[in-house]
Amino acid sequence: FLYFPETHGITFRIQITVKELLDTDVLLKLLFHLPVNYPSTLPDISVNSDQLTRAQCKDVKDKLLEQAKKHLSEPMVHDLILWIQQHLKYVIKQPATVCNEKTTLSKGTSTEDGIWMLLLHLDHMRAKAKYVKTVEKWASDLRLTGRLMFLGKIILILLQGDRSSIKEYLILQKTSKVDVDSSGKKCREKMISVLCETKVQSQCKRFQMFEVKEYSTLDELQKEFDAAGLATLFSEFVPPLLK
């Protein structure tokens, strides 16, 4: 990093490589200028990349500043770097892959069209009651349908809705203080896996509402997926969680 006199604060220059959905490495050159009264004041952020257009770099900068506002009064540079590594593919609107399949949507086709589906795996919920209410509220606010599913220690969130709402949910899930740590202090969700994010196929049935359900056996959980026309999704992602 570069150090400037106290009246100017500190400037960090950081380069990170992000692996994109189409197997293209994107090198981001980020510059954070931290004013003297940081973190009570937002940092100035500059974004450059040889792989992105000027407009895309501006989009990345704007989204980083949006996230920075959520962390005001607390150290944020590390969190912002982690956030953009996880969300760059949404910010620059690259064509998306369909689960593990190698086929991609045509560049001429808008990834925003149609209904999308997201399958998430959570490692745990310490403050379960509060966590569940928060997920229910987000799903309601974003008009998402689906299931929050519990099977023993396995916790899955299956969502269907507009692409933009799915993206907004992911941002909320990863950046909000939704749970508590081992000492009971509020914390963000750090143990989450995106198992699948894809456009809903014609053979899949739409969920009419969002429900929280608990299952006593794997067979019961499988039947939930089967009834929704998601047998392949289940066999691909759920059994490995039991190992």
From TrEMBL:
Keyword set includes Nucleus: yes
Domain (RWD) ranges: 1-91
One GO biological process term: positive regulation of hypoxia-inducible factor-1alpha signaling pathway
Gene coding for it: Rwdd3
Record key words, sorted: Cytoplasm, Nucleus
Localization, UniProt: Cytoplasm; Nucleus
Organism lineage: Eukaryota, Metazoa, Chordata, Craniata, Vertebrata
Annotated GO CC locations: cytoplasm; nucleus
Superkingdom classification of source: Eukaryota
Entries under SMART domains matching the protein: RWD
Matching PANTHER family: RWD DOMAIN-CONTAINING PROTEIN 3
Protein name: RWD domain-containing protein 3
PROSITE patterns given in the database record: RWD
